[in-house]
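4.2 Preliminary Data

To establish feasibility before requesting continued support, the project team ran the inverse folding procedure on a target of 399 residues. The structure was first converted into the token representation described in Section 3, and no sequence information of any kind was made available to the design step. The complete token record follows.
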């Protein structure tokens, strides 16, 4: 018998109050903590509230999902960012578009954190025009052979699988010859090279595909119908990188993911610097507190276009980092070279976030792309003109 929303609320509270602290108490390191948290969440029956029970979920409805979001907000370990692509993007896309064997193979271990995912969309030659991607997948017997290059691939260096977009028909217009695949990352033919950011960390990578192999049936959706599934995943991504990124524990100091600095931490920083009585600082803190609440309320609304939450998250994150920089004074972005590999080091915590926040305007689609999307899909404004929507891909001019 399904629990009532009130009963589920009690379950979630008990998990965060009583179960999770003991699970994480003896676990160190970002990946170890991430896996321990996700396994405990799944084993408590809370990792896939609205997923079918056959695939490790609870089979509950939107009202139960809303309860979980309310009760978990501000309490999720920030290491959960490791699973942002798998749980937040790949799993719901496979659930909604994948064939049953694909769901059976990937959803349960994905929700439990047994497998980590990355997303191979962007390419050096396509930029914001995702549909112009040129990575090729060619059917070779019972497998697809994939050749090309991807870039800005977050987490590829510790991922086992990737959601991959590749071109499977060069004679079709660019939007109609794309297919979405599940790519095993740990194989010959896949070379992952980390890219060092100005924070000193290497969160994302460039990936070279040279005859990488994919089982014939590991297609999400239809062959040559990948643009529809790509857009569906992007909607999940904008939720994940928007309001969903604000669910992390407000008191935890972690350099995992790309989430806005919590206002509670900025209040502590202002207190430490003797600036808590400064009226301008208090005004900025009040604005940020209001922004934090707005993002929370946006996350609770149903039917809201995900680009709205993404833009609000970016605005909140940059404003919070700017205040941290003013409070920490001019040397705030400086840190010791010996700290760059310790993602939990406290010494450069604010320096890291001051620099890291700039990526919020880029990851998951730039602010400009979000505004174009809202204009066309939410406001009904005319699409930007383009001569290449009906031209075969092989005839397009490319860089």
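Position-by-position output of the design step:
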């Amino acid at each position: 018998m399904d629990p009532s929303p009130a009963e589920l609320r009690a379950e979630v509270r008990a998990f965060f109050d009583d179960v999770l602290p003991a699970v994480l108490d003896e676990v160190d390191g970002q990946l170890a903590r991430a896996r321990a948290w996700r396994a405990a969440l799944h084993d408590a029956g809370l990792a896939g509230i609205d997923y079918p029970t056959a695939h490790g979920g609870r089979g509950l409805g939107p009202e139960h999902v809303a309860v979980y979001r309310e009760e978990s907000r501000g309490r999720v370990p920030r290491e959960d960012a490791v699973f942002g692509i798998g749980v937040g993007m790949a799993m719901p896309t496979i659930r909604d578009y994948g064939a049953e064997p694909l769901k059976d193979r990937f959803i349960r271990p994905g929700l439990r954190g047994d497998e980590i995912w990355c997303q191979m969309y962007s390419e050096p030659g396509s930029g914001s025009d995702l549909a112009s991607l040129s990575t090729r997948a060619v059917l070779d017997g019972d497998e697809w052979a994939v050749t090309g290059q991807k870039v800005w691939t977050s987490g590829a260096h510790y991922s086992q699988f990737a959601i991959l977009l590749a071109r499977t028909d060069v004679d079709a217009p660019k939007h109609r010859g794309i297919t979405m695949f599940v790519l095993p990352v740990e194989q010959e033919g896949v070379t992952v090279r980390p890219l060092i950011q100005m924070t000193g960390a290497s969160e994302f990578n460039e990936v070279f595909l040279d005859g990488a192999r994919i089982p014939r049936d590991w297609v999400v959706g239809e062959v040559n119908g990948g643009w529809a599934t790509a857009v569906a995943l992007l909607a999940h991504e904008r939720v994940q990188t928007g309001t969903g990124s604000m669910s992390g524990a407000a008191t935890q100091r972690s350099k995992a993911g790309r989430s806005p600095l919590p206002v509670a931490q900025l209040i502590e920083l202002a207190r430490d610097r003797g600036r808590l009585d400064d009226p301008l600082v208090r005004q900025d803190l009040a604005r940020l507190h209001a922004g934090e609440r707005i993002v929370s309320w946006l996350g609770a609304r149903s039917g809201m276009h995900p680009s709205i939450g993404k833009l609000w998250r970016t605005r909140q994150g940059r404003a919070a980092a700017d205040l941290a920089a003013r409070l920490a004074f001019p040397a705030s972005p400086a840190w010791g070279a010996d700290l760059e590999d310790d993602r939990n080091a406290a010494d450069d915590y604010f320096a890291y976030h001051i620099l890291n926040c700039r990526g919020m305007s880029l990851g998951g689609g730039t602010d400009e792309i979000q505004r174009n999307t809202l204009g066309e899909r939410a406001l009904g404004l005319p699409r930007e003109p383009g001569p290449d929507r009906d031209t075969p891909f092989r005839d397009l001019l490319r860089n």
